[in-house]
Amino acid sequence: MAALAFGLCLVVAFVALSSGKSALPPPLVIWHGMGDTCCNPFSMGAIKKMVERKIPGIYVLSLMIGNSMAEDLKNSFFLNANHQVEQVCEQLSKDINLQDGYNAMGFSQGGQFLRAVAQRCPYPPMLNLISFGGQHQGVFGIPQCPGESSHICDWIRKVLNTGAYSKAVQEHLVQAQYWHDPLNEELYRNSSIFLADINQERYLNESYRKNLMALKTFVLVKFLKDSMVDPADSEWFGFYRPGQDKEIMPLQESLIYTEDRLGLREMDKAGQLVFLASDGNHLQFSESWFCSNILPYLQ
Ligand SMILES: *[C@@H]1O[C@H](CO)[C@@H](O)[C@H](O)[C@H]1NC(C)=O
Ligand SMILES: *[C@@H]1O[C@H](CO)[C@@H](O)[C@H](O)[C@H]1NC(C)=O
């Protein structure tokens, strides 16, 4: 299995090297998840290295939000997602390596943040967006926490359960900004300063739709044994049917799709929307899985 995948990767790299006029593969931007950083050698650092090994000559930017890894980690909990997206848009617009377009890979909440970048900031153009375990319909629970952050998560969970939609919590707690309470849909729509906006649940911003549809492909990876995202279906834009928290409503039945508020239905029909599954816990995949499923989008 590994040997097969390795062979596949080699072929891909060879094509990239021998494809005539533009020698450089498209650059790649990575956005890490909650409780993680740009450069952790066991997470994004390893992903960056792997991609650089598979695609010789590629420029990979793993986003650091803030001026140090410590700030980056803290900001993944406490820096308003709208401000994070704004900062990233500015950084991307100034990066000369990205001006002809770039691919993007978002991990966990980095998935919905990069979608916001695609919707709000069309220049430079994002080519393919790959979301690994992103919570595109939000979460109604954070059952487990990644890495060393479990004490922060215990605290966050309490805050979210008591007042996720209060103005103060919305402004300062990132996870509140994509907290989606299916028992209080109207309150969520009124109060969510990030997710309800990018999902066009308050009003329609035509440019969000147009910009998202400009992606070549939007790849959504769901982790079938995910124990950190509730519900994991959110990774494919599914969510609890309004008014209860047991039964899941798939994307195709939701208003976002039936009213085509984001252009997803049109993208789906045109083959621009790709649903992938990895049979592991949150963000768990093998190198050979990555090689055969993701690498083709990064060429
Ligand atoms: C729509 O989104 C764009 C990009 O974020 C923004 O500049 C514009 O003001 C928004 N339009 C409305 C009507 O909110
Ligand atoms: C949501 O906002 C509307 C319009 O401002 C208001 O009438 C309604 O009561 C609000 N609902 C909730 C649950 O906050």
Total number of strands: 8
Instruction: Kindly report the CATH topology.
Output: Rossmann fold
State the distance separating the first and last CA atoms.
22 Å
Proper CATH architecture: 3-Layer(aba) Sandwich
Radius of gyration: 18 Å
Major beta-sheet overview: 6 strands, parallel
The average pLDDT value, as a whole number, equals: 92
CATH secondary-structure class: Alpha Beta
Low-pLDDT residue spans: 1-7
Neighbour order of strands in the largest sheet? 2-1-3-4-5-8
Helical segment tally? 13
Kindly report the name of the CATH homologous superfamily: Alpha/Beta hydrolase fold, catalytic domain
Given the helix and strand composition, which structural class is it? Answer: alpha/beta
Bound molecules: 2-acetamido-2-deoxy-beta-D-glucopyranose
Structurally, the number of domains stands at 1
- What spatial form do the alpha-carbon principal axes imply? globular
- What percentage of the residues does DSSP assign to strands (E)? 5-15%
Pattern of helices and strands: HEHEHHEHEHHHHHEEEHHEH
